[in-house]
Amino acid sequence: MESGVYVRGHLFEAALILAALVGIIVTSLSRESTRQALLQTLARVPVIGPWLVQSEIGRWATVLGSLLSNRVPVLTAMELAQGVIRLRLLRSGLERATKGLQQGLTLSAGLETQAWFPRTRLNLIRVGERSGELPKMLLALGHSQRDAAAVLQRRMLGLIEPIAILLIGAVIGVVMVAVMMAITSFDTLV
Questions:
Q1: pTM for the whole thing?
Q2: How many structural domains compose the chain?
């Protein structure tokens, strides 16, 4: 009740503080370094992190498969496909895999050392290398990773929805209590 009276009495200052907070958030998110730091932090969150990794692998595999299908040399395609990766951990792992390719390793051997790359998906790349159908297998990998990311996204939204309902209910409850307290305080004034 007192905070509502205070805000009503200092409406200009409250609006100015709110506008400053929005400005600070927008300005900081417009910087690449802040967005990268936020993305790297989100990658460590239990539910969001695996979803981000699945999405990144799917995007990378699709781009690499498309480039190889169009007869772009493997090393050039790897370097170009790294451009779609936003997570530093994944990008540095792909850079190491590219160096392995330059040294004569296969793509699957280079990715095998990366802890973030799913082992079951690695088998698709191995089969593609052995059969000579690597572009097709990478496109299939990209498709399956995007599907896996969609499943994780639905799970994440399934977790967020009840939490959001509880928070909205709590806010409505606080407003109702404040209104009831205001009504009962008028009764004591009379």
A1: 0.73
A2: 1
